[in-house]
Amino acid sequence: MKAVVCGAGRVGYGIARELAGEGNSVTVVDWSQELIDRITTDLDVRGVVGHGSHPDVLERAGIRDADLIVAVTYSDETNMVACQVAHSLFETPTRIARVRAQSYLDKRWGDLFSHGALPVDVTISPELEVSRSILQRLETPGAFATAPFANSRMQILGLVVNEESPVAGSSRDQILELFPDLGFDVVGVQRDKTLFIPRGDDPLMPGDDVYISVAAGHVKRALDVFGATAQRARRVVIIGAGNIGLYVAKALERVGGVRVRLIERDKSQAERAADILRRTVVLNGDGLDRDVLREAGVEDCELALCLTNDDKVNLLSAVMAKREGAARALTLVNDQAFHPVKTALDVDVMIDPRSVTVSTILQHIRRGRITGLQTLAGGQAEALEGVTLATSPLVGRQLDSLDLPDGVSVGALVRGDKVYFARDDVRVEENDRVIFFAMKSAVSKVEQMFRVSLEYF
Length: 457
Prior knowledge:
Elements (H helix, E strand, L loop, with lengths): L1 E5 L3 H12 L3 E6 L2 H10 L3 E4 L5 H6 L7 E4 L4 H15 L3 E5 L23 E3 L1 H14 L5 E5 L4 E7 L11 H7 L5 E8 L2 E3 L12 E7 L3 H7 L9 E5 L3 H11 L5 E6 L2 H10 L3 E5 L5 H6 L7 E4 L4 H14 L3 E5 L16 E3 L1 H13 L4 E7 L4 E7 L20 E8 L2 E3 L12 E7 L3 H7 L8
Parallel strand pairs: 1-2, 1-4, 2-3, 4-5, 5-6, 12-13, 12-15, 13-14, 15-16, 16-17
Antiparallel strand pairs: 7-8, 8-11, 9-10, 9-11, 18-19, 19-22, 20-21, 20-22
């Protein structure tokens, strides 16, 4: 596949890295010579310096014979025009644009992104995707990662095994034997920064980050088994009233019994938030000010959400909120260099907006019948959901005896409302949804398993 990526920032870099790593021909366009130099040095991609929506620049990037354009510059208008030019002048088959401004995405203008208007096949709103990711985390407060699949019939959760965990020292086989009626499985383990697919007799050690697949109705009990149960937040303090903070606050207002208080440093933004929100107390103040945090009631809140545009402010406000008594803290962190200090700072959950956006875009790019995708373990693995076609090499095979490539484990098979796991005696049928947990190096092999050919076997 030939792809043109407009924008060499964090998201563009992530998309180019993933596509190039799978052997695709990738050209990246950006007006910054510095960013182009960096991306062409780090990755096996071609770089073009210029404006991403200019026809001559796109032509130099090879848009005439490209299969895909992904426009993820910092300008919504540049992204949209790039897709328009790619369609009108070069007939590029697939066009994806990142669109931040919520006005463009308002339901009243639902016909804006269509072939008769702006020919954008997929619009990605980072703020909406990140907000949804945060709300998913609130549903499973004891997990550091949450990835729903098959219309939320099952999830893959990231859990920490600590010294007090009931399963510490037990192997996967022992846990499954102890809880035979519990709908879950252990699909991946990260130990000392090394991620691996566990064998049946591998013990889970204190300090491990464990990834489990679990049926929707069994989540609470699975969290209990791993000692990861946490009280669902009823008192929430949000720091930052940007698009993400507002979206999350509005969503929480629709949840009965949740008290939300929001802190915003900018006065005009705080006034705007107060006008939009109905049941949220909005405070104009600094999230790093102890008195403001106390006024917001952070000492007795179950959750502090630090959602400003500044990584350092988010991290420091999370630390201060925990010191003042907040039970848990979730923070947005764009710079991956800060992720190793998560434990030292006692921050419960860090969300990387770039990773969330890249996962969403890749879901729309993947070949074959991949219908769901989530990047996990800091980019070391992916959870993929696919639908099996009649000619898929998976169809007719026993789930408990699939010939899987190295670095791949079965998350679950979903058929209707039933969820099956790797140990279950069931054959894969047409139109089943199968979820795999795969190391990065094995993702392309998982994709092959859903293609309508026999080349995988």
